[in-house]
């Protein structure tokens, strides 16, 4: 089967499309014929070696941590999922013709494969971030980098919880943020002044998705570093703020809940572009540029 791999750290030029044997599922795992795999910033950051200090990479390394597809082999101990089931979830080296999932849920019929394959990382990260900050109904949350996949999920899950959301994005994405339920503003100089005008009673918490070096400004806005969390800026903890990283917590519960929200019309995800497996390097270049609205996906 075809798979995406890289054999050394580097730029997009180290991405290769190779022919390998399909993986086999271990105990408690399933293998799927991949229909869609979400592109995440962690994919190219891992390829560049940014995670090497806290995560071991064994070369050649596969790419991708989430996918949707049809189960074609079930590992020992799996009793509630069968060959032919449509599922989505977390796995390893998911940008391939077939991939093993370690955590998954069944895909509702009304949830498209492309959206399902791009849901796990953003939905779990958003859910976890809101829980870690303990943001409550009636409070106001600022999301830095709100138009991307994680930001889109944070807005919607926060609004469902009764939280007011102010989101930063470029001007052309403001209508998108409004559609999701956020109050939009632009990023850049004088952000604090604009946010204070939008929220005269103050900001209770802030989540940084963009990793744009804005942690000190977010702390000044909230007045408490413990109420600032980043999923993209490794330096957050140096300022007393929180940095949230995996592994995912209760992924099956979160994925099942988000799938139900999607089916009820309470959650949406914009897929900006879909790439074939052979264009994975190009997809990572687009992701790294930082202007994606929603998510990108790979469809083998």
Describe the structure.
- Helix 3 packs across helix 4 and helix 3 packs across helix 8.
- The chain is α/β, with parallel strands linked by helices.
- Strands 3, 5, 6, 7, 14 and 15 form a six-stranded mixed β-sheet that branches. Strands 10-9-8-11-12-13 form a six-stranded parallel β-sheet, sandwiched between helices. A three-stranded antiparallel β-sheet has the order 2-1-4, with no helix packed on it.
Mean pLDDT: 96
Question: How many β-strand stretches?
Answer: 15
Enumerate how many helices there are, as a single number.
9
Please summarize the sheet with the most strands: 6 strands, mixed
Task: Round the Cα radius of gyration to an integer and report it.
Answer: 19 Å
- Helicity level: 25-40%
Instruction: List the helices and strands in order.
Output: EEEHEEEEHHEHEHEHEHEEHEHE
In whole angstroms, how far apart are the ends? Answer: 10 Å
The class by helix and strand makeup works out as: alpha/beta
- Give the percentage of residues in beta strands: 25-35%
Shape descriptor:
globular
**Regions with pLDDT < 50 over 5+ consecutive residues?**
none
Task: Summarize the topology.
Elements: E1 2-6, E2 15-19, E3 30-39, H1 41-48, E4 61-62, E5 66-74, E6 86-92, E7 98-106, H2 113-116, H3 120-133, E8 140-144, H4 149-160, E9 164-168, H5 174-180, E10 183-185, H6 191-198, E11 205-208, H7 215-222, E12 228-230, E13 242-243, H8 251-263, E14 271-275, H9 280-289, E15 295-298
Parallel strand pairs: 8-9, 8-11, 9-10, 11-12, 12-13, 14-15
Antiparallel strand pairs: 1-2, 1-4, 3-5, 3-7, 3-15, 5-6, 6-7
Helix pairs in contact: 3-4, 3-8
């Amino acid at each position: 089967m075809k798979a995406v791999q890289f054999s050394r750290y580097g730029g997009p030029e180290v991405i290769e499309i190779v022919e390998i044997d399909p993986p086999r599922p271990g105990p408690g795992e399933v293998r799927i014929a991949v229909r869609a795999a979400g592109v995440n910033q962690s994919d190219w950051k891992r390829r560049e070696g940014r995670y090497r200090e806290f995560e071991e990479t064994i070369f050649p390394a596969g790419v991708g941590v989430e996918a949707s597809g049809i189960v074609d082999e079930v590992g020992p101990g799996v009793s509630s999922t069968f060959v032919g089931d449509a599922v989505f979830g977390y796995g390893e080296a998911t940008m391939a013709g077939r991939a093993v999932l370690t955590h998954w849920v069944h895909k509702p019929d009304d949830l498209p494969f492309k959206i399902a394959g791009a849901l796990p990382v953003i939905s779990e990260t958003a859910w976890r971030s809101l829980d870690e900050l303990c943001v409550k109904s009636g409070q106001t949350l600022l999301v830095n980098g709100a138009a991307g996949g994680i930001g889109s999920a944070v807005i919607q899950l926060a609004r469902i919880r009764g939280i007011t959301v102010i989101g930063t994005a470029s001007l052309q994405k403001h209508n998108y943020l409004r559609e999701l339920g956020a109050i939009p503003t632009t990023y850049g100089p004088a952000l604090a002044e604009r946010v204070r005008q939008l929220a005269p009673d103050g900001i209770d918490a802030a989540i940084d998705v963009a990793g744009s070096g804005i942690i000190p400004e977010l702390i000044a806005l909230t007045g408490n570093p413990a109420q600032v969390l980043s999923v993209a800026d490794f330096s957050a903890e140096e300022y007393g703020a929180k940095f949230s990283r995996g592994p995912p917590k209760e992924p099956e519960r979160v994925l099942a809940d988000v799938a139900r929200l999607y089916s009820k019309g309470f959650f949406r995800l914009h897929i900006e572009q879909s790439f074939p497996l052979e264009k994975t390097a190009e997809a990572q270049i687009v992701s790294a540029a930082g202007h994606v609205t929603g998510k990108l996906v790979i469809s083998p």
